[in-house]
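Reminder: ligand-aware prediction takes two inputs, not one.
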Amino acid sequence: MTSLRLGIDLDGVVADFVAGWISRYNQEFEADLTPSSVTTWDGLHTLTHFRNKDEFWRWASDHGGGSVFRHLETYDGATQALHELAMQGHQVVILTLKPDWAVHDTFAWIGDHRIPTREVHIISEKWQVPCDIYLDDSPDQLARYLEHRPDRLICRFVRPWNDPIEGVLDVQSWADFVELTTTRSRAH
Ligand SMILES: [Mg+2]
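Here is what comes back for the chain with magnesium ion:
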């Protein structure tokens, strides 16, 4: 088995950003949004009373001393899968895009959740970090991987807010991702 570098996104892949901000929003504004109402990549604020993106992110950046990113839950099976992959000898490389105000919360969150990684990049040009397999839910990041790293295995974590892309492999679950990584590392 070959040890592979796995470039793993956080929000929408490991961390449930949608459920996190929605539960916070409902509590604070006595609203009744459900995570299933999020079906597009852009325009989150259109589901809320905020007038624009900036208002939404200003609210998200401050919840009693922490940002929304400090309080997210993990998706079912996500941390277990990462531990399993790390135990198999693969390198979990965290590739996450965050505003400046979320950087420290991101490191704290990674620590709280005992994410098995020794390498974290908070970066917008994720493709600049060489990995064997990339896993992301962002249509934009997937397109950039495809443009700049066409020889790597690029995986879309299938979510209601993304669509299939030619040349990108669909991953439906963490179990799927563990299986394809294991198969890939045996083939190397
Ligand atoms: Mg993401």
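Residues 174-187 form the longest helix (14 residues). Residues 17-71 form one domain. We will return to this case in the review session.
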